[in-house]
Design goal:
Radius of gyration: 18 Å
Distance between the termini: 15 Å
CATH class: Alpha Beta
CATH architecture: 3-Layer(aba) Sandwich
CATH superfamily: Thiolase/Chalcone synthase
Structural class: alpha+beta
Helix content: 25-40%
Shape: globular
Number of domains: 1
Number of strands: 8
Largest sheet: 8 strands, mixed
Length: 247
């Protein structure tokens, strides 16, 4: 699979510019997650109020990558999804309180993709992906299929929010809340003069044990983009994902 990274945008608490991400990539550290969230002031107040923190993070990174009136296939990926909202619903169940149909409807995994479609007036394909530690790569596979079906560009967002403390024993792969958006284009015989870094993603079988990367795969890819690295290897269970920058 080959992609052209036409544009990218990322957000985490205190990291909201390319310069800030480059500084982090040079010396990556765990960031204090203080529940800060993007303002999303490009949206009317009534619409902002319905967005969870995870949704705000998604809109913030995706919005600048889609032109006004442009129709783009959309892939939303998150391993854990709306854990704070789901935890609140489970707490209501435990306390025998009535559940909010609105909160339940917004907790499902494709809710953010639906909100994106409504807020941006998107009428095309959208996909919501929930995988394992290599959710990022599975999102890229989805994007590759959309590009092969004729899409000129595809918008991919992977976002994770730090879960409530009750999940600490089970969820250990979200060092801090983050969202990464990639606008991807295809590579063909006429794309050599078009802007964007070109990457190849290759999948091989992995015979070793599952390995946990120091950083989530999406953040590791941002680090590679900022540092100009040409290769990345991500192994998980029986899958070995190999990234290669194309000159």
């Amino acid at each position: 699979m080959q992609f052209r990274i036409e544009q990218w945008q990322a957000w985490a608490p205190g990291l909201d510019t390319v310069e800030a991400w480059r500084a982090w990539a040079h010396q990556p550290v765990r960031i204090d997650d203080d529940n800060a969230q993007p303002s999303c002031d490009f949206l009317p107040a009534m619409q902002r109020r319905r967005l969870s923190r995870l949704a705000r993070m998604t809109m913030h990174v995706a919005w600048p990558l889609c032109a006004e009136g442009e129709q783009l296939p959309f892939v939303f990926a998150s391993r854990h999804g709306e854990t704070p909202r789901t935890y609140a619903l489970l707490s209501d169940v435990a306390q025998e309180q009535p559940l909010s149909p609105t909160q339940f409807g917004l907790s499902v995994h494709n809710a953010i993709a639906g909100q994106w479609s409504i807020l941006r007036g998107q009428h095309g394909e959208s996909v919501a992906v929930a995988g394992e530690a290599d959710t990022f790569e599975h999102a890229m596979v989805e994007a590759a299929t959309l590009l092969s079906d004729g899409a000129r560009s595809v918008l991919v967002v992977i976002a994770e929010e730090r879960p409530p403390a009750a999940y600490d024993e089970w969820i250990d792969d979200v060092p801090f809340s983050y969202a990464v958006a990639l606008r991807l284009g295809g590579i063909d015989s006429t794309s050599g003069t078009r802007d964007g870094e070109r990457w190849q993603l290759h999948l091989e079988s992995h015979q070793g044990q599952s390995t946990v990367s120091t950083w989530p795969h999406a953040l590791d890819f941002v680090r590679a983009l900022c540092n100009g690295e040409s290769k990345l290897d991500h192994a998980w269970k029986l899958r070995q994902w190999m990234w290669q920058r194309i000159p």
